Amino acid sequence: MELLSAVAQSYPRSGIRRMFDLAAGYDDVVSLCLGEPNFDTPLHIVEAAKKALDEGLTHYTPNAGLVELRQAIADKYKRELGLEYTADNVMITVGAMEALYLAMVTTVNPGDEVIVPDPCFPAYLGQIMMLGAKAVPVPVREENEFKLQADDVEKAITSKTKAILLNSPSNPLGSVLGKEDLEAMAQVVLRHNLVVFSDEVYEKIIYDGRSHYSIAQLADMKERTIIINSFSKTYAMTGWRIGYLLANKEIAQHMPKIQEGIASCVAAFVQKAAVAALTGPDDPIEQMVNDYNRRRSILIDGLNQIPGFHCQKSPATFYAFPSIKDFGKTSQEFAEELLREAHVVTVPGSAFGNMGEGFLRLSFANSDENLKEAVRRIAEHVKKKY
Ligand SMILES: Cc1ncc(COP(=O)(O)O)c(C=O)c1O
Fold this sequence. Notes:
Blueprint lengths: L5 H5 L4 H9 L6 E2 L11 H12 L12 H15 L8 E4 L1 H11 L7 E6 L4 H8 L3 E6 L10 H6 L5 E7 L11 H13 L3 E5 L25 E6 L12 E4 L2 H4 L2 H8 L5 H12 L3 H22 L14 E2 L10 H12 L1 E2 L1 E2 L11 E4 L4 H18 L1
Parallel strand pairs: 1-10, 3-4, 3-5, 5-6, 6-7
Antiparallel strand pairs: 2-8, 7-8, 9-12, 11-12
The structure holds pyridoxal-5'-phosphate (PLP).
């Protein structure tokens, strides 16, 4: 008897973890491989969690989450994007990761096709596979400022296409889809009657006066868009495991029963901390984004001074995605070489899809000193070897 399921045998391994594990063999590396803020959670959020624990919030909450938090999220969307939602549209989840899964499990059937950008956040592919659906990668190119093109999406649509997964701002590309890009995408979505999963977890980490735009803000799009968001990146809360989604009520009403079967609910005191995050001051976010902005220049300007590296200045996120094609190596070979010889941990672009070949992803959610040191080590290595 075969003990293992097909999912267990074929679930894709993370190329990010692979580099992380390889790096464990070295004790003096500068690691630019993980995608998480290097800040602690702002104090007023931590205090709110402690207070909630002291007050005895140690029990189950409703499956959909505390009404107070769901209402605070609905208010945020009204305030920031002018979108009308109520608490009934909001589902609280274990990070954006579970929000993505709930969004898909309520709308996607086995055999359906889901369009994903290539390169993309690799967890999308595993989740789509677990549902017995098929991920259809659509190439995203450097010459288009790493923006997914509506024409390319339309070419990939078949009679089985159910949904498209958008991720703006993008991990790993750092790119942003603006209103005009989204208008073109919305035309395609409406023409083919698709559902949109819009992963907007990097909405606040955006630079140079740009502001985030959601496809749900466009005419006729809100009803067919499920927005996925999280506290992880904006509030440096990756370890708290709390995110959320917004969907139309017909879809949203099926989610609590599924949540009951997956995680029951998110920890009550964590939900209270999330209320404090949304209703508290924005200064800590501004401070973090200012720091990321400075670090973006240190890393990207630094890389661009190294012969052979070409890197667009990411308009958002804390990722740089430089081309390393000039070195004539695969991105896996080059990332392993940088680890072995320069002791800098990066992620090969190929970990994010075939179109990531020839690129690396480096995170600048790190200290100024570490970023300067990483650039110094890479420059020295390149000078010596090429
Ligand atoms: C694009 C994207 N979506 C979702 C997630 C998951 O976030 P969370 O920690 O909220 O589960 C990440 C985390 O790296 C991400 O980069």
